Amino acid sequence: MGPQVRALTPLRGREQHLAEIGANLRRVADSLRSRVVVVEGPPGAGRTRLLAEALELATRNGFAVAGGLPPGAGAPPHPGGGAPRPPVGISPPGAGGPAPGTGAAPPGAGSPARGAHPIRGGVRARPPGGAVLAPPGQSAVEAVAVRLRGRAETATAQVVALDDLHLADHAALTTLCELIADPGARPVLWLLSFASVGDAVAPHPVPACLGRLRRGLGADRLPELGPLSGDPLAQLVSDWAGAPPDPALLALVESVEATPRAVIDLVRGLVEDGEVCVLDGAARLGPPDQGARGPGGGVHLPAPVPRRLSALVQRELRSLSEPTMKALRLAAVLGSPFAPEDLSAMLGEAPVGLLAAVDEAVGRGLLVCGEHDLAFRTEPIWRVLLDSVPPPVCALLRRQAAELLLPRPDGVERAALQLVHVAQPGSTQELRAIAEGSRRLLASDPSTAAALATHCMELLPPGRAEHLRCARTAVEALTRAGDLDRAIALAQETIDEAVRFAAPSPHALAEDLAALRASMSTALLLLGNAQSARRAAGDALAVREGGPPHREAVVTHLAASYLTGDDSAAEQTRRILSAPDDHPRAVRVGAMAFQAFGQWQDGRVGHAVGTLRRAVALDRAEEEAHAVDPRWFLAFALTRIDEYEEAAAVVRSAARSAPAEAGTLAATVPAVLRAPLHLAQGHLDEAEEAARAGVGGAGPCVPMLAPQAWLVLAFAALRRGALAQAEEYVRTLEKDFPQHTSSPWWAARVLLSAQLAEAQAEPAAAAEVLAEVACREGALRELVLEDPAAAAWSVRCALAAGRPELARQVVDAAELLRARNPQVRSVLAAALHARALAAGDARCLARAGGLHRNPWARAAAAEDHAGLLLESGEEEHAIGELDRAMEAFGALGGDRDAARVRARLRELGVRRRHWTHAKRPVSGWESLTKTERKVAELVAGGLTNRQTARHLFISPHTVGFHLRQIYRKLGIRSRTALVRFRT
Residue 313 above 90 pLDDT? Predict the structure, then answer.
């Protein structure tokens, strides 16, 4: 028994090249004329493997192969086995060919995996199965000629593969040209492969040969086989790592030359060394050695590089010139990116002296140029170069760089990033520079600021003022970065430690402790823990009693007081605003924001929006983190009154105010602000995407604002008719974000509960929720302010439930709002809509529809108008309004609303087509139509046929019909099985 042949991995990244070879096979088969295809690429690019796949394609489609492949040629065997899927080819005319499209090889044709091989121009290769031995040079070409003459009488088109022609001499290539140009030969597809010549000084015979072939036969030169990238690279890594690579592993692999051979060697070596493991379905690098982080705790350092990759990069670096290598090692110490002027100063050379080194480094793919700086192409390259600098020398260079940077106006931050790696306990000046650098980085790079400040804390003795100030910087930075739990834990631990160490003289640290408690209160507030935030802010204010209060503590205490329903908040706001000169700008801005909050709850919408606009105008960027930003509330308020353009501008302004570093609050908060804006405009997909980002789907969550995002998700699901999903979101709100009546989201939460009750049961259920709300003073007024369509919807439910007195209460609340806000168009439209619906006034209702800017409210007005027209016998006009409403709801994605209107049209004998034909499988979930999926989801969620019918506005008989189709397509027989299938 012969040796076991292990299967090849699939060909990656060369599909287009193989397709072009297949097209040339077709041309030879159709025209019965010879063609030449040239394959070029650097060593390791996969030329031989591509020829192997091409011969496989040719033999499967009836071509006679003049050469073949030894087992496994062109690629190393795959450790897991599994042969590549054979490509689908074409069949040429001629005896023995397979039927078109079958891909089967003719009897006796063999396959590259058994007997065929590309004849190499300069290498001996003994193919199995008695194939011709191809000696090097001239003899190799002559061997091809012998084989072709032996098959001259056959009618089958042939293919010849010649590899490594760059090794052939001039005589062999001349003979090859003559053989290819022979007019009496049978049709042959010539596959000629050679390595890229590069910048060879001596003239090479291959280009001259190709020129002759182009003039004679029109040789087709394929695009050069370049490095792999993107999906092909990830797939190749997956083949050898055993699972798709995670981003860190993929970035590591991209640091090498990225030819298939280099990638395979690297990944296979990493697996053998135990550096790669498969976890949660992804191939990942093993955890780095914590000791490899070095001094500075890994601040502004690339991750350690596996030994095997380091050896590969070092081998590449050894071919660089000495000046370039020196410049790159210094640049690695400066960091990535780095300023060219800093490198020039460190080298002690004029900028012109950098040109040659930078040109070489960029040309070799080690550096990339930005507009104002340079950076290493990948972090592993940076790390290998940095590791090449001996640690004592690296420390000296870092101190030299810091001395160079500190005098510059913008140099403190960069100097801190150098000193953090060399500073020691007791080095006062260096620690002071690190602390100052961390404070300056707070706004632009909070994650780095937090790392600098926490490392500085480790080098300072606890219980000292400097230690507390670094802790405060770290807490603010962690808060801005969205790591709220860590910020609170660090603050509390530092406070407890300071109290313990400073027991003999606690008053000396009182000021710094108060500032740290104020910063902790901000993190607690954003975390949604308003009670604890209020206590922490109160403790900070108590320390400062008799002196100027800490502004962050004042604002946080005010915000927490409002959120917990403390009646003293309104009085505190009035006191601050009555003496504006006695308070810092940040305190006045916070007081104005919460004054607006109270005005909104009182129904004075115009005043609230005006106050928020003035607060935003007064606000300026501060170094301290804002507990509340007036732009947040202004964006929400403008969205609710349909001022969409201004709301979008405010959101953009909030996003620009702090760099949206990935994974920070600055990136998350704008998503929360955009979500209700998208929902109001009828962009459900965008609303859901933004809301998911706002609840932490792609970064940190801001629990204080998260209820708004969950509300958007629930309302969007309700609009789509996904009741089970909407109910799940409501449960999340109830469990994780219980709402006090003073909460900004309380009214929206009540409106959601009422609308969900109406969808799941009857209007009477919604009316019960509304009646309970009406018992609290001002509650109905807050509820109808949540949505321009809320007042009319509430009236509709009350009338349907036979509760005219409740409808009157809703109308009275809307009218009170109209009287208090005569200049707010959305309030006027909502009040007119509700009053006209309650009074049955079709003319006024048509006017309300024209006033609405909110697309949902406009569509609802058209539907309500149709109902009143039907009552007066104007059926044709009513049908037109229903058509308009159905089209509007459908365009907005409001499937449930569109289905309700369609049902009303059916009652009038009007049927509107609403389905589309789509290719679906015959079984499984994907085979279900859109309506069948909705029925399945509702029934699996526990609804009866009658409840499902009411929800979809169809008959119970139709629900039963759909259920039978669902059971058949899913291969089940009961509702219980359907529930199991969906879970």
Answer: no
* Pair 425, 467: CB distance under 8 Å: no
Task: Sort 322 into a burial class: Cβ within 10 Å, 0-12 / 13-18 / 19+.
Answer: exposed
- Cα separation of 200 and 173, whole Å? 18
Q: 3-class SS at 797?
A: helix
As to burial, measured by CB atoms within 10 angstroms (0-12 exposed, 13-18 middle, 19+ buried), residue 251 is middle
User: Which is it for the CA torsion 230, 231, 232, 236, positive or negative?
Assistant: positive
As a whole number of angstroms, the distance between CA 425 and CA 784 comes to 61
- The C-alpha atoms of residue 362 and residue 331 are separated, in whole angstroms, by 13
Q: Which residues contact residue 572 at a Cβ distance below 8 angstroms, ignoring those fewer than 6 apart?
A: 557, 558, 561, 591
Look-up: residue for tokens 């669902």?
966
**773, amino acid identity:** V
Cβ atoms of residues 1 and 76 within 8 Å? no
pLDDT in tens, 167-201: 877 777 888 888 887 766 778 888 988 887 554 44
Handedness of CA 245, 247, 253, 254 (dihedral sign): positive
Backbone angles phi, psi at 845, to 5 degrees: -65, -35
Please report, for residues 375, 436, 658, 665, 747, the alpha-carbon distance to residue 446 in angstroms, rounded to integers and kept in the order given: 21, 13, 10, 10, 35
Total count of residues recorded for the chain = 983
Decide which of 273 and 244 is more confident: 244
Could you give the CA distance from residue 752 to residue 712 in angstroms, rounded to a whole number?
A: 10
Tokens 């919408």 locate to 605
In the DSSP assignment, the letter for residue 64 is E
Q: Which tens digits make up the pLDDT trace of 654-668?
A: 887 655 555 567 778
Helix 945-952 vs helix 895-907: crossing angle, to nearest 10: 90
CA dihedral of 544, 549, 441, 405, whole degrees rounded to 10: -70
CA 850, 853, 857, 858 torsion: positive or negative? positive
Q: What is the DSSP letter of 212?
A: H
Half-sphere exposure of 18 (CA within 13 A, CB side): 24
Question: Exposed, middle or buried, 867 (CB in 10 Å: 0-12/13-18/19+)?
Answer: middle
Tally Cβ neighbours within 10 Å of residue 681.
Answer: 20
Q: Do 362 and 369 meet the contact criterion of CB atoms below 8 Å apart?
A: yes
Residues β-bridged to residue 369: 374
* Res. 93: pLDDT tops 70: no
Residue 638 corresponds to which tokens in the numbers above? 């403008």
- Of 155 and 849, the structure prediction assigns the larger pLDDT to 849
First to last CA, the chain: 51
pLDDT at 98: 34
Distance CA 961, CA 955 (A): 10
Contacts of 751 (CB under 8 A, 6+ apart): 783, 786, 787, 790
In this predicted model, what pLDDT tens digit does every residue of 64-75 receive, in sequence order?
A: 886 544 333 444
In 185-272 the beta strands, taken as DSSP E runs, fall at 188-195, 220-221
Q: Above pLDDT 70, what percent of the chain? A: 82
φ, ψ dihedrals at 383, nearest 5°: -65, -40
Q: Considering only CA atoms, which of 400, 415, 396 is closest in space to residue 300?
A: 415
Going by DSSP bridges, is the β-strand pair 276-279/282-285 parallel, antiparallel, or unpaired?
Answer: antiparallel
Collapsed DSSP state (helix, strand, coil) of residue 376: strand
For residue 750 the two structure tokens come to: 């009540």
CB-facing half-sphere around the CA of 167: CA atoms within 13 A: 16
Helices within 579-683 (DSSP H only): 585-601, 605-618, 630-640, 644-656, 665-681
The pLDDT score that the predictor gives to residue 61 is: 84
In Å, how far from its chain's centre is CA 849?
39
Q: Tokens 């077709």 belong to which residue?
A: 26
In this structure, the number of other CB atoms found within 10 A of the CB of residue 114 comes to: 15
Residue with tokens 């679906």: 920
